[in-house]
């Protein structure tokens, strides 16, 4: 009995990874992905966030938070509706794997993209601008968890019952920008008015930014453990509406 | 013999639209079971429920003895699915498509490559294994899609209209494949709207329309019904409209139905009727503007079997405007 469960678990992990790997190969070069996933964070960084007097390390911390956030959240709303339209999503839904594994596999796509893009941002920051990283391991943990959490957020939009990626691009972009502007990325938390800060706490990006500040600069406003826990719980929480909407799709026939 | 599929009172509403209406049937182990019906009959809806892609509103599905609602995992491992569109990954090569599916269905690692090669060779795709599928023809995609559906050696294979849109040769190749798979022991659930295809392939056929099953029988025994709803369509000038009475009285004609400027004459033997129609036109000094024989249409078969007036439904279907072009093209044989 126990052995059977272990085998099933191994199967599910392999299946989830196969889904993720396949998606990464198929979708990384799609214009939608390049535009919203790979260029957007740099665009946001250079247009809103870069200041002449800013230290290199500070810039790296911001850029990392932005890449993790934008890249990770871009995959879900783009890939799933597209696959539904092409009919390839049925192949995954009909396969002998649990919905949770499928969703985790899909979440891994955005997460891996985000990890890749942040790695590039990090290397450029360190090599070209001589940024110093205070706590490398915290940085690794923060990027991993942030990538997972924001990728799961993207999945929520990908799970909306529709076959048209255009239908979800709009609301998902609006929400991402909303979360971005209320969070502590552009204005440090400690400089915010109390009301603004209270709002900032609603955005998971605030915690990712605070965590990056800890990891890169060695200082932040909140506890890094709190940041980690919030990101983890946000990621798990984001999976719930996705599961619910997948069940709904199965009733509606999408 | 054991049953592969047992369906009890299966029902699906899309909102207010009743797509499948309390149908019950079983598919026996080892048979090719045809699910035959016109466009919009509810075939795809039924197949999607049988393959767990769609949740039934009501009813029970039992596959290989397992209740699908309660125990989908075991059943999913035994099923292969060829959907209506060939849903292959066009950005990947044929080989990569097969490898991905093999992983998804947990084909043992050692067996994957051997099985993929064997399938690609059988399906005539081995030379193209490293070509991206976006460069494949429709027939090649369909074959790959079937190969992907059987890489894990399913005991039950679902195919949703596998041949429309293919040239005659590709369609024949796919029918041969289905026959071969069945001979090797795979139970097949085949959805189609082509009477001829069902005739050629199926051990038993269910005829479905408007979400209801009218009959389940062998093609041989359904043939009588098919024969009765063949027809000859004729347009005469001048004043073709007024000749319905005499045309309907020609020997062998069961019903005459006006279709626009034409008359459709239902008969079991169109070839015997043709010369009579021509003779009638000549003797009344009329010009034959068009004359054609029509094979049985599924709508008509359905009406014939349910004992309704044949020829009344065509208008309704045209108005609905949802027919795909191939439905008409397939059954019309110019005489
Ligand atoms: N997701 C959906 N939402 C609402 N209505 C649907 C949906 N899918 C199908 N329908 C409707 O349900 C009915 C049955 O459709 P279905 O696709 O099962 O027919 P079909 O027999 O497969 O037809 P075809 O030969 O065209 O493939 C049709 O009236 C169709 O318009
Ligand atoms: Mg269909």
H/E element order of chain B = EEEHEEHEHHHEHEHEEHEHEEHEHHHE
Count helical runs of chain B: 13
Question: What is the percentage of strand-forming residues of chain A?
Answer: under 5%
What average pLDDT do the residues of chain A reach? 90
Describe the structure.
The complex is a heterodimer of chains A (254) and B (335). By secondary structure, chain A is mainly α. Chain A has one domain. Helix content of chain A is 81%, strand content 0%. Chain A is built from ten helices and no strands. In chain A, helix 3 (56-86) packs parallel to helix 6. The radius of gyration of chain A is 18 Å and the shape is globular. The relative contact order of chain A is 0.14. Chain B has 335 residues and is α/β, with parallel strands linked by helices. Chain B folds into two domains: 3-218, Rossmann fold (3-Layer(aba) Sandwich), CATH 3.40.50; 226-332, 2-Layer Sandwich (Alpha-Beta Plaits). Helix content of chain B is 38%, strand content 28%. Chain B contains 13 helices and 15 strands. Chain B has helices spanning 43-50, 72-78, 94-104, 109-122, 138-150, 168-183, 195-201, 219-228, 244-248, 270-283, 298-305, 313-320, 325-331; strands spanning 3-14, 17-28, 32-36, 58-63, 66-67, 79-82, 156-160, 187-192, 204-209, 212-217, 230-237, 253-259, 262-267, 287-294, 332-333. In chain B, strands 6-7-8-3-9-10 form a six-stranded mixed beta sheet, with helices on both faces. A five-stranded antiparallel beta sheet of chain B has the order 12-13-11-14-15. In chain B, strands 2-1-4-5 form a four-stranded antiparallel beta sheet, with helices on one face. In chain B, a hairpin with a 2-residue loop joins strand 12 and strand 13 (262-267). In chain B, helix 3 crosses helix 4, helix 3 (94-104) packs parallel to helix 5 (138-150) and helix 7 packs antiparallel against helix 8. The two termini of chain B are 44 Å apart. In chain B, 43% of the residues are buried. The model of chain B is unreliable at 313-335 (pLDDT under 50). The complex binds adenosine-5'-triphosphate and magnesium ion. Adenosine-5'-triphosphate binds at residues 14, 17, 19, 37, 39-45, 193 of chain B. Residues 14, 17, 19, 37, 39-45, 193 of chain B line the site of adenosine-5'-triphosphate.
């Amino acid at each position: 009995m126990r052995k059977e469960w272990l085998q099933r678990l191994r199967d599910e992990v392999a299946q989830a990874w196969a889904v993720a790997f396949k998606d990464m190969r198929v979708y990384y070069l799609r214009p939608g992905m390049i535009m919203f996933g790979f260029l957007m964070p740099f665009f946001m960084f250079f247009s809103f966030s870069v200041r002449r007097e800013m230290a290199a390390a500070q810039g790296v911390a911001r850029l990392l938070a932005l890449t993790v956030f934008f890249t990770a959240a871009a995959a879900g709303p783009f890939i799933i509706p597209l696959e539904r339209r092409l009919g390839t999503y049925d192949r995954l839904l009909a396969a002998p794997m649990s919905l949770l594994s499928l969703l985790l596999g899909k979440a891994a796509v955005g997460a891996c993209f985000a990890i890749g893009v942040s790695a590039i941002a990090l290397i450029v920051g360190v090599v070209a601008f001589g940024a110093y990283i205070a706590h490398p391991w915290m940085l690794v943990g923060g990027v991993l968890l942030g990538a997972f959490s924001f990728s799961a957020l993207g999945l929520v939009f990908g799970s909306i019952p529709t076959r048209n990626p255009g239908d979800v691009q709009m609301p998902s972009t609006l929400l991402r920008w909303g979360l971005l502007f209320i969070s502590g990325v552009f204005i440090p938390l400690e400089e915010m008015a109390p009301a603004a800060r209270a709002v900032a706490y609603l955005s998971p990006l605030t915690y990712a930014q605070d965590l990056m500040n800890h990891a890169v600069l060695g200082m932040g406003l909140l506890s890094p453990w709190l940041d980690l826990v919030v990101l983890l719980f946000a990621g798990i929480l984001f999976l719930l509406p996705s599961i619910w909407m997948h069940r709904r799709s199965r009733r509606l026939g999408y | 013999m054991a049953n592969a599929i047992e369906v009890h009172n299966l029902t699906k509403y899309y909102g207010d639209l009743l797509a499948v209406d309390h149908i019950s049937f079983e598919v026996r182990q080892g048979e090719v079971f045809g699910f035959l019906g016109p466009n919009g009959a509810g075939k795809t809806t039924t197949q999607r429920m049988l393959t767990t892609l769609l949740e039934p509103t009501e009813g029970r599905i039992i596959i290989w003895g397992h209740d699908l609602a309660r125990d989908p995992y075991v059943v999913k491992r035994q099923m292969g699915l060829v959907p209506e569109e060939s849903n292959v990954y066009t950005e990947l090569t044929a080989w990569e498509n097969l490898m991905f599916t093999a992983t998804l269905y947990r084909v043992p690692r050692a067996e994957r490559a051997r099985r993929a090669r064997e399938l690609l060779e059988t399906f005539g795709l081995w030379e193209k294994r490293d070509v991206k599928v976006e460069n494949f023809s429709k027939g090649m995609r369909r074959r790959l899609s079937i190969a992907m559906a059987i890489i894990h050696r399913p005991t039950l294979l679902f195919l949703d209209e596998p041949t429309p849109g293919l040239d005659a040769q590709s369609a024949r190749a796919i029918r041969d494949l289905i026959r071969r798979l069945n001979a090797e022991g795979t139970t097949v659930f085949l959805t189609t709207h082509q009477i001829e295809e069902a005739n050629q392939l199926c051990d038993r056929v269910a005829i479905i329309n408007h979400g209801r099953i009218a009959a389940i029988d062998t093609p041989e025994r359904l043939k009588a019904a098919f024969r009765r709803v063949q027809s000859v369509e004729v347009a005469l000038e001048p004043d073709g409209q007024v000749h319905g009475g005499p045309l309907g009285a020609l020997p062998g004609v069961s019903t005459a139905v006006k279709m626009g400027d034409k008359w459709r004459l239902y008969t079991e033997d169109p070839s015997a009727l043709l010369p009579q129609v021509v003779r009638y036109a000549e003797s009344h000094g009329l010009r034959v503007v068009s004359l054609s024989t029509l094979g049985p249409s599924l709508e008509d078969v359905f009406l014939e079997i349910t004992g309704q007036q044949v020829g009344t439904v065509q208008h309704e279907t045209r108005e609905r405007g949802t027919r795909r072009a191939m439905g008409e093209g397939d059954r019309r044989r110019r005489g």
